[in-house]
Design brief:
homodimer, 183 residues, mainly alpha, Arc Repressor Mutant, subunit A, 2 domains, DNA-binding
Amino acid sequence: MRALKYAILGLLNRKPMSGYDLSKEFSSQIGNFWSANHSQIYPELKRLLDEKLVVYNIEISGDVLEKKVYTITEKGRKEFLRWLNKDEPMGPTPKDVFRLRMYFCNNLDVETRIRLLKHQLSQHEERLAFLSDEMKRYNTVPPIDSDAFGDYLVLDSAIMREETTIRWLKKCISLCQNGSDEK
Amino acid sequence: MRALKYAILGLLNRKPMSGYDLSKEFSSQIGNFWSANHSQIYPELKRLLDEKLVVYNIEISGDVLEKKVYTITEKGRKEFLRWLNKDEPMGPTPKDVFRLRMYFCNNLDVETRIRLLKHQLSQHEERLAFLSDEMKRYNTVPPIDSDAFGDYLVLDSAIMREETTIRWLKKCISLCQNGSDEK
DNA sequence: CGCGACATGTAAGCAGTTACATGATTAT
DNA sequence: ATAATCATGTAACTGCTTACATGTCGCG
């Protein structure tokens, strides 16, 4: 599978970057659906280098600090495009610990459920507010052949995901409260 | 973290089961948000046994075929409830390879994007149809202290997730088509 | 001069997938 | 008979997280 490999190749296909830059990218839009930390990125870059999918040259920041700026090769671009064009089946359903916990929530007293649900709710609302703020930067949908188009699509998806989670959490809270009244 | 440990304890807290039964459970409602296959379940059961959180007794199916039916212990129940009551922060954003691909979709020609998007769309619509069918079994919201309540909540969540994904996919298709007209 | 950001790496361990391996039971 | 399902395990490998480890640069 090696999704990280293609995530990195895709980012380097946008523009040359260092491992450090890549790890920052994974905190931005793309990070809503894929991320990795530096301890995974550096070894992967070494591997891509061995496979001749990337090359690097060293830039000096300041006096002596070396920065390896990686560039995708023609071979790398080909392999990336091959992966991107492939039609793959729907992936496995992603895991979610909080929903796993709610699956077992009949073992919790109602007050605890509501407390846990409200805590999740506030976190997701905060996250949604952050994402909505990012969305404000787009007055219009970016051109479909620009890098920004991908940014826009995944940001939109992340917002929709948060909105849906929030709707579900509110529904859960409501069901727990009504159910407890009925008793 | 050991989420699988608690998933298994929670299921055994519902009723005694074999490893085989557990792996089937992960294909039902709970499987929408957590799953594992038998190669992970059997070693985990052994570990739970070592930790004295479960015990088993052997049932014979047919003539000689042995079936290990696991039961949660009092210690196991306590540890499960401790985990369940804990208030944990929002987990990391789940990974999604298709959205990762769409992040890079400006490198695809419009026809390919639409083909890939429509393929995903049909798969998610099929999945939604299946889940909606499952939902029909509930004429009413189950009692909030029944096992079925958890089943209901996660099924509802899975349906909302599929609906949202479908809305997003349709939006992406529409954006790609309109954008290509404008050019 | 101290702190946060910049910058790159390795090691140990946990979690999860795929494949290997075996055998019994039930329905057709 | 034979295929699908029941039933239990192990081994090898991939992916990912957390911690270890080191050093520079720019700002206040």
